[in-house]
Amino acid sequence: MRPVSTTSSSPAAASNTPGYQSAPAGPGSLLVFLLLGTIFGVLLIKSEVVSWFRIQEMFRFQGIHMYGILGSAVAVAALSLFVIRRFSLRSFGGETIRVPRKELGRGYRYIFGGTTFGLGWALTGACPGPILALVGYGIGPFVFVLGAALLGTWTYGHLRPRLPH
Amino acid sequence: MLEFLSRPWPWYVAGPLIGLMVPLLLLVGNRMFGISSNFRHACAAVLPSRAEFFRYDWRGAGGWNLAFALGVLIGGFIAGTLLTSPEPIAIAEATRADLSGLGVTDFSGMVPAELFSWSAILSFQGLVMLGAGGFLVGFGTAYAGGCTSGHGVAGLAAFELPSLIAVVGFFIGGLVSTYLLLPLIL
To answer: Which of B175 and A94 is assigned the larger pLDDT?
Structure first.
């Protein structure tokens, strides 16, 4: 295995994958991430963003629910990022918090990849977080959706050199 | 308390709490909120591959994210055992009418039971919606480098143009599926 860094010259390396700038997480912090994930999982279910019905309501522009959730989540996150940057806050581990920038490039990957994901989102009614939350929630067939999603990512990894980015 | 939490959470409560995931992950470990990278980490960890995309230190780069993903699964389990609501999802009447028109009859669960059942996987409908749909989610998020979390919430909050383009793509794809594909499949 070779080390991965955001400065790697290879486009196939870790660009746009968050989390590459820090040292590996120790066992203690892994527990903290597990706990935060658990809270996020509960939020996904109780907010009903995991519901195929809600996703249909959103794509048919017939209700405010999903837009309210996404809009208020973005607003709170943006305000938080502003505060973090404005006061150069440090993480609990003492590192200066850095928000990695995404490379635009020619932008093809974002429009083509985004559209591909959108096609699947409206069919399954679930994005990656909800797929996991629904498996935990006990809707068994989402194990099949998860397997199909992994196959999709695996296929992308192999086609990547031939796709426009 | 449990009864109170078991009711559906309104968007103005759940949305801001989801947004707080972004600063919390940064404060706790300097990590940027995102979920779909876990598909890549899982492939790198489990499926043997010669593709360069999967040849990296997945433990170092993605260990935290896999722990977070496992948490999401546990959170779904907790919500599904302790915090279930007996009420059907309160979608708009217009949506209900549209979906009834497509042949959906069971509105009682979190997802339509007739479409998301094990037996449905064996039908053409189910195979396309669950199999092809899941494949497109995995392919598309890896291609775009993010999903609703990484681009839709964290990326937009950081005023990233790439994320805005990706979200426009989410909606192009979603509208095509909703208005063109679903009527063909259902």
So the answer is: B175
The reply to whether residue A47 touches residue B14, judged by beta carbons under 8 angstroms, is yes
Asked if B131 and A141 count as a contact pair (C-beta separation under 8 A), the reply is no
Q: What local confidence, expressed as pLDDT, does residue A17 receive?
A: 46
A108 lies within 8 A of chain B by CB? no
In this prediction the ipTM stands at: 0.95
**Partner-chain contact A117 B30, CB within 8 Å:** no
Between the two ends of chain B, the Cα-to-Cα distance in Å is 41
pLDDT at B113 over 80: yes
pTM here is: 0.90
Q: For residue B126, is it left (φ>0), alpha (ψ between -120 and 50) or beta?
A: alpha
The pLDDT confidence band at residue B112, using thresholds 50, 70 and 90, is very high
- Cβ atoms within 10 Å, residue B81: 11
Are A113 and B89 inside 8 Å of each other by CB? no
| Chain A contact for B3 (CB, 8 A cutoff) | no
Residue of B19, B30, B152 with shortest CB distance to A91: B30
Closest CA to B185 of A27, B177, B23, B65: B177
Q: Give the SS3 label for residue B50.
A: coil
**Residue A4, token pair as written in the block:** 């991965």
- Residue B61 in contact with residue B43, Cβ under 8 Å? no
> Hey, what are B109's tokens?
């669960």
Report the distance separating Cα B122 and Cα B109, nearest Å.
21
Token pair of A72 as six digits: 């208020």
- In angstroms, the CA B153 to CA B33 distance is 8
- The CA distance from B40 to B51, in Å, is 12
Query: Average pLDDT, stretch B106-116?
Result: 93
Find out whether A138 and A52 touch, Cβ atoms under 8 Å: no
